[in-house]
Amino acid sequence: MMEDLFTCKLEESRQKRKLLSIYDDKNDIYSFRVGIVIMMFSDSVLIVQFNKRGESNGYILLRLVDIFKIEEDTKYLIRWSALLSLETDFVPFQTSSVPNPRWIEEYGIDYIIEMCNIEKKMVTIWLIYEDSFTGFITYYNGNELLVSVYTDQGIFDGVTVVEYKNIRSLAFDSADERAVMRMIGHGGNAL
Predict the structure, then answer these.
(1) Which of 67, 108, 122, 163 sits between 20 and 30 A of 47, alpha carbons compared?
(2) Domain boundaries, the chain
(3) Is 101-185 in the same CATH topology as 2-81?
(4) Domain 2-81 belongs to what topology?
């Protein structure tokens, strides 16, 4: 029953562009993300996140199994809503060729990984083991990813291979990824 209620609230956010507080880190139960669901998948959800100034702070893909609490219509969120311009269309990818929508719904995380690879988006990946890294996806075969990793200073830091099943969340276009990209442009080294 709870899973159905979670799904309904997430879908309502997507359809009505409703702002939510989403809790997904069981190791830090006071930490949450403020955002709007823009895509729903069978096993995950893509959220546009907002910073404290009400500006878009990129996108994050979260596994549904990791979401343990959702809040809506709180005083905090109502105050945030006043800062937001919800008329904006949130378009995570520039590529216009979208595969069969039924395929996207079933294989959402595959779609997001593929699009980040195709569009050479810098991503931050968090694993179920609490490890994280930032870089470019250079290869994905549906089971494993090859990622060229960069430090916060924009310096190439080797290559990481990770199994798809161990990914807890994936973010792109946030202030953190944009900062690393700027560092790469100022003395770091890119792909």
Answers:
(1) 163
(2) 2-81, 101-185
(3) yes
(4) SH3 type barrels. (2.30.30)
Task: List the structure tokens of 95.
Answer: 């590529």
Residue among 177, 166, 38 at smallest CA distance from 112? 38
Give the burial class of 149: count Cβ atoms within 10 A of its Cβ; 0-12 exposed, 13-18 middle, 19 or more buried: middle
Helices (H) then strands (E): counts for the chain: 5, 10
Give the single-character DSSP code of 65. G
Candidates 73, 77, 27, 23; CA nearest to 47 is 23
Lowest mean pLDDT among 9-23, 41-55, 75-89, 119-133: 75-89
Distance, in Å, from the CA atom of 96 to the CA atom of 111, rounded to the nearest integer, reads: 13
Its CATH architecture, for the domain 101-185, is: Roll (2.30)
Neighbours of 89 (CB within 10 A): 5
> Which structure tokens are listed for 73?
């219509």
H/E run at residue 101: helix 101-106
pLDDT band at 98 (very low <50, low <70, confident <90, very high): low
Residue 170 to residue 20: CA distance in whole angstroms: 19
